[in-house]
Automatic annotation (TrEMBL):
It is a peripheral membrane protein. Its cofactor is heme. Heme binds at C499. Belongs to the cytochrome P450 family. The chain crosses the membrane at residues 64-87. This is Uncharacterized protein.
């Protein structure tokens, strides 16, 4: 027994059975009294050792293994599996840490159910950069500000593509590479993005035109809300109003929100947006064999109908276009097509797809943010009263707020930012993909991985925000009541895929919110009023809730 205890300690000379020298380093030359230098001799001490420590067993190991492998089929299989496993571990040694997954399925469940909560919880376990498999795809999730900025800005050449997901192909007639949102960074994409950015910027620089187009929609909404003498969910009404704003800004068109055409259009964009949520078939292609899912065809057909409608508007614009007086985005695009240096490179389908993305992306994100805003105002009556006071002081009661008031309403702006932070309606931006293998924070991101920028986690991280779960708009204000927007606030992303509609969205959110607050008080419809996010589908909507509104004096 004594021998075993001694030998289990650091007595490497006895374990090896080869050395006649005891001790633990050079210069220590005291001879072991009982061990011989003879390689074949086994000392009685050694014969009492557990099997793995015996020298003769070790010597015979290659021969034993060889005979096991050649004579035993199962052993060979196990050996090959172990070898492959070790090889895989060695190849993945630089990958970010992450949970083990079920073979072939991986951890797809993290993406299918409340992914913003699950992926933020995983940060606490595996750190700011982690990865896992979802079916056949590797997902890399970046959570800290440093990792997110490294991916979006410093490594943008490697990480600005979009994932090659089958569902995305149903969005555009020519496949995903023809869209603005889903294309990789190609020359044609850069052209589309440049045109979209320029058209929106040129349009936004004429504030009066935007106010003109928005004001009728805003007045309609306020009248509709105040005439409702019962509790209601504001989200559907806001979506129809914002769809009309989008159509008005893009084509100078508006439709009766209760009419068939507007409802059909809304449905088309709903279906298109569902494609951006994580669909199991994109990760488990085998499912295609077992399902007869005609959803992609259906989306392609509906998108085709929408493009037909847009072409009618476009043709009307071509016939009535006056370059000195652009009426909307379509006129701006026509102007760039005629005067821009790159005009020859542009295909007619590019225009179709830019218009499709501008109308679709534009209205949903703004409408959902407005719904969250009304929900938070219902929950926080004291802050709502402060917003009312601020607006009354600057604007008065005799006119409605306008864009010129914006710089003098810091609390109103801070409330919008705080709601954008807490709701983080695009919790992972739009998924990016790695075009080439790169390293983020020292971890390998292999080519082809899907990269999720976890903005939801960033916006709820106690390292960047004091008491992050609390609704506190004043965190965006200095002590002197001046707006102070920290770098780690990223509702529109950053880098080459940054949202081109940011300036327009800011204008829309401000005008809608300031006007509603000027005219109405929002209260919860029930004492047990709660605000929670529902399932993720392109945008993170609030679960349906009901509010009441009362006209202010
Ligand atoms: C509150 C409103 C909005 C929010 C929070 C928002 C947020 C975002 C985010 C996070 C992205 C993805 C960035 C990335 O993947 O790195 C994006 C992309 C995009 N947004 Fe917005 N957006 C809003 C409004 C708008 C509006 C009003 C328009 C158009 C008029 C628009 C058009 C687009 C387009 C076309 C893209 C794709 C850009 C690309 O892939 O290069 N968005 N938006």
């Amino acid at each position: 027994m004594y021998c075993r205890l001694r030998l289990k300690s650091d007595d490497w000379s006895v374990r090896s059975g080869r050395r006649a020298v005891m001790g633990d380093g050079p210069g220590h030359t005291e001879a072991t009294p009982s061990l011989s230098d003879d390689e074949n001799h086994v000392h009685p001490f050694v014969s009492t050792l557990p099997l793995p420590y015996r020298a003769e067993w070790l010597h015979d190991l290659p021969r034993i293994l060889f005979s096991l492998l050649t004579n035993n089929y199962y052993c060979s299989l196990v050996a090959v599996a172990v070898l492959l496993f070790l090889l895989q571990r060695w190849r993945n040694r630089n990958l970010p840490p992450g949970p083990w997954g079920i073979p072939f399925y991986g951890n797809l469940n993290y993406l299918l159910h409340l992914p913003h909560l699950q992926l933020s919880h995983l940060r606490e376990v595996y750190g700011d950069v982690y990865s896992f498999k979802a079916g056949c795809r590797r997902i890399v999730v970046l959570c800290s500000f440093e990792a997110i900025m490294e991916g979006l800005v410093y490594k943008k050449d490697a990480l600005s593509c979009r994932p090659e997901l089958d569902s995305y192909n149903s969005l555009y007639q020519g496949g995903r590479q023809c869209g603005l949102c889903t294309s990789d960074v190609t020359e044609q994409y850069l052209l589309r993005k440049h045109f979209a950015n320029s058209a929106i910027d040129a349009y936004c620089s004429a504030a009066a035109r935007i106010e003109d187009k928005l004001s009728s929609e805003i007045v309609d909404i306020i009248n509709y809300f105040s005439e409702l003498q019962r509790p209601f969910d504001p989200a559907p009404v806001l979506e129809m109003a914002c769809l009309n704003v989008s159509l008005s800004l893009t084509f100078s068109q508006r439709f009766d929100p209760a009419g068939r055409v507007a409802k059909e259009m809304w449905r088309t964009f709903e279906h298109r947006s569902s494609v951006y949520s994580f669909n199991a078939v994109d990760f488990l292609p085998l499912l295609n064999v077992f399902t007869t899912d005609d959803h992609p065809e259906y989306i392609r057909a509906r998108s085709g109908d929408q493009v037909e409608l847009h072409r009618r508007f476009l043709n009307f614009h071509k016939d009535t276009y006056d370059p000195s007086r652009p009426r909307d985005f379509t006129d701006q695009l026509l102007f760039f097509l005629e005067s821009g240096e790159e005009r020859g490179l542009f295909q007619p389908e590019d225009i179709d797809n830019i218009l499709l993305d501008m109308v679709g992306n534009g209205f949903q994100a703004v409408a959902v943010t407005l719904a969250w805003l009304l929900g938070y105002m219902a929950l926080n009556q004291d802050i709502q009263s402060e917003v009312h006071e601020e607006i009354d002081e600057v604007v008065g009661r005799d006119r409605l707020p306008c864009l010129d008031d914006q710089p003098y309403l810091p609390l109103t702006a801070a409330v919008i930012y705080e709601v954008q932070r807490l709701s983080s309606i695009k919790p992972f931006l739009i998924p990016h993909a790695a075009r080439a293998t790169t390293f983020i924070q020292g971890f390998e991101v292999p080519a082809g991985s899907i990269v999720l920028f976890n903005v939801w986690s960033l916006h709820h991280d106690a390292r960047y925000w004091t008491n992050p779960g609390k609704f506190d708009p004043k965190r965006f204000l200095t002590e002197d009541n001046v707006l102070d927007i920290p770098d780690h606030f990223l509702p529109y992303g950053a880098g080459s895929r940054q949202c081109p509609g940011e300036s327009l969205a800011d204008v829309e959110l401000f005008l809608f919110f300031a006007n509603v607050m000027h005219q109405l008080r929002v209260t919860p419809a029930h004492p047990a009023f709660r605000l929670d996010s529902s399932t993720y589908d392109h945008v993170l909507r609030p679960k349906p809730f009901e509010i009441c509104v009362k006209e202010r004096d």
